[in-house]
Amino acid sequence: MEVVLWILILLSFVLAFVGLIKPIIPSVLVLWVGFLIYQFGFSQDGLSWIFYVAMILFTVFILVSDFLMNKYFVNRFGGSKLGEYAALIGVIVGCFVIPPFGIIIVPFIAVLIVELVQDFDFGKALKASIGSVVAFLASSVAQALIMFIMVIWFFIDVFLAVSYTHLRAHETSLHL
Question: What is the pTM of this model?
């Protein structure tokens, strides 16, 4: 049974990273599935409260930074509020159109069209479209790094929990 649980945990971690190029998969939430499988599947070796506090903070940081990066880069490249929304919708639609390239191409075209409709300035619209691509790429890299830290922390916490359990078992056997 433990082998099946570990396979499920590892699959959830892999699927979480796949979610970075297939945004329809909620990456950070899929990581949590792996954490919870471990927590409830291995009753004696639960994860520490420090681990869960850190993972909650990382999760909030990922969600907030994703929004802020998109807003920052589209605005920095001269895009409008509607351009920001077009980029977000374009990423979602793009994962179904020409995968995996659609997640870059579709938001680019969507922002270009939205910005052109609003201002008729091709140079400005093109610049905002490039901002949407930069935002997506920067956000994906940041998410990947944070998720990698979360996974490494998970394995460190598991190792410490297992080591502690074995140490306690060894101490108990010595006292008998």
Answer: 0.78
The tens digit of pLDDT for each residue in 46-57 reads 788 999 999 999
For the chain, how long is the longest CA-to-CA vector?
A: 83
DSSP string covering 53-77, please? HHHHHHHHHHHHHHHHHHHHHHHHT
* C-alpha span between 121 and 137 (Å, rounded): 25
Beta strands in the chain (DSSP E): none
Q: Residue 80, SS3?
A: coil
For residue 136, the Cα-to-chain-centroid distance in whole angstroms is 12
Burial (Cβ within 10 Å: 0-12, 13-18, ≥19) of residue 142: middle
69 vs 133: CA distance, rounded Å:
11
